[in-house]
């Protein structure tokens, strides 16, 4: 592993570059040897839609490019297609064993995140909800998605540690300031 890292109190803090920024991924010290065996640099990838940052490394395996995700490597599931690895706290940069859980794709889809703004359709309008409470209603899904980002910034500032709000807004076609959300 070529990344800079610090070992402290049983945890390893790994510097990861993502879209020109440095973010810190955390693993347990017990997993360091396994992660350090990977030659190359762990990087951050912002997912479409959620804006969460996942730590990955591209490597050649049998002449083909393969993407390895840090959380899957730690759980020993880098080649297993039957299971997904869930981040229990929804913080995708926290790759400690206590935050990771292997489960079926079906089970993972059932699990919902109430610790971020949700966008739901109601009749002909779109609502933004925070912890089940309506904080805004909009004519288009696009408007609701944009406002959900601002709701996340306001109500869940800790999400900014592992979600790239600016990239999400860019993909939604705006970098404008917040409109009034009641």
Strand and helix map with partners:
Layout: E1 5-8, E2 11-18, E3 21-28, H1 32-36, E4 43-46, E5 53-61, E6 64-69, H2 70-74, E7 84-87, E8 100-103, H3 105-110, E9 118-122, E10 125-130, E11 133-138, H4 141-155, H5 165-171
Antiparallel strand pairs: 1-2, 2-3, 4-5, 5-6, 7-8, 9-10, 10-11
What is the CATH C level class of the largest domain, in words?
Alpha Beta
- Mean pLDDT across all amino acids: 84
The largest sheet has its strands arranged as 1-2-3
Largest sheet: 3 strands, antiparallel
Verbal overview:
The chain is α+β, with helices and mostly antiparallel strands. The protein folds into two domains: 5-110, Alpha-Beta Complex (Homing Intron 3 (I-Ppo) Encoded Endonuclease, Chain A), CATH 3.90.75; 118-171, no CATH class. The chain is built from five helices and eleven strands. It has helices spanning 32-36, 70-74, 105-110, 141-155, 165-171; strands at 5-8, 11-18, 21-28, 43-46, 53-61, 64-69, 84-87, 100-103, 118-122, 125-130, 133-138. The chain has a three-stranded antiparallel β-sheet, with no helix packed on it. β2 (11-18) and β3 (21-28) form a beta hairpin. The radius of gyration is 18 Å and the shape is elongated. The model has no long low-confidence stretch (mean pLDDT 84).
Q: What are the defining features of this structure?
A:
182 residues, alpha+beta, Homing Intron 3 (I-Ppo) Encoded Endonuclease, Chain A, 5 helices, 11 strands
């Amino acid at each position: 592993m070529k990344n800079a890292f610090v070992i402290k109190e049983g945890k390893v803090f790994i510097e990861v570059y993502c879209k020109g920024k440095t973010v810190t991924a955390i693993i347990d010290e017990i997993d360091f040897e396994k992660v350090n065996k990977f030659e190359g640099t762990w990087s951050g990838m912002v997912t479409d839609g959620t804006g969460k940052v996942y730590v990955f490394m591209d490597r050649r395996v049998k002449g083909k490019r393969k993407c390895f995700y840090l959380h899957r490597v730690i759980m020993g599931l880098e080649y297993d297609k039957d299971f997904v690895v869930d981040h229990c706290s929804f913080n995708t940069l926290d790759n400690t064993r206590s935050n990771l859980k292997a489960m079926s794709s079906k089970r993972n889809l059932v699990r919902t995140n109430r610790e971020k703004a949700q966008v739901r359709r109601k009749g002909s309008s779109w609502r933004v909800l925070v912890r089940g409470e309506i904080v805004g209603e909009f004519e288009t899904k696009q408007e609701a998605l944009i406002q959900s980002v601002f709701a996340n910034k306001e109500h869940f500032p800790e999400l900014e540690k592992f979600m790239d709000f600016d990239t999400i807004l860019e993909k939604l076609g705006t970098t404008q300031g917040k409109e009034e959300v009641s």
